[in-house]
Design brief:
- By secondary structure, the protein is mostly beta strands.
- It has a single domain, classed as Immunoglobulin-like (Sandwich).
- Helix content is about 10%, strand content about 40%.
- The strands form three sheets. Strands 3, 5, 7, 10 and 11 form a five-stranded mixed sheet that branches.
- Strand 8 and strand 9 form a beta hairpin.
- The longest helix is centred in the first third of the chain and has 8 residues.
């Protein structure tokens, strides 16, 4: 991100899923991927995806880690959370995840069921409003470094 800033760009898009939201860095603009296998219903869900504001992400978007057993984030705008009102879900690429959400602190903490192989992975947080069916998402990419990888990239 610093290289992009230093090159004089006013912003940049990421590969992170979801909708962008107020306060998000202009260098972390999100996008929603539409797959060729998506039917019209899936397309409309993706097209109508709302933003889910998150901060204090661990790992941070784009961060390189040696391994990851847990991840977390603060869901900033989720002051009115209740399981009766929302369906909340957390995912990590290819992993079984168990998670807890503390509605007072608005902190989601997840445990990953197995080790990651070196590579790039996504964390996705989804929130569906049970009354409207509208889904919000926030996702970010992180990298697990290889054991012989001295640069971490």
């Amino acid at each position: 991100m610093q290289l992009v800033r230093d090159s004089g760009f006013a912003g940049a898009m990421t590969v992170d899923g979801g909708a962008s939201y107020q306060g998000l860095s202009p260098y972390l603009v999100k996008r929603q991927v539409i797959y060729s296998s998506d039917d019209m219903n899936k397309f409309l869900i993706r097209f109508g995806m709302r933003a889910l504001s998150a901060s204090q992400q661990y790992p941070a978007p784009g961060q390189v880690v040696a391994q990851l057993a847990t991840f977390s984030c603060r869901l900033d705008d989720l002051a009115d959370y209740s399981p009766e009102k929302y369906v909340l879900n957390a995912k990590a690429t290819g992993k079984k995840v168990t998670f807890n959400f503390d509605p007072q602190a608005r902190i989601l903490t997840a445990t990953v069921g197995s080790e990651f192989k070196p590579g790039n992975y996504f964390i996705d947080i989804y929130l569906r409003d049970k009354a409207t069916g509208i889904t919000a998402q926030n996702g970010w990419l992180f990298t697990v470094a290889g054991k012989s990888d001295k640069t971490g990239y």
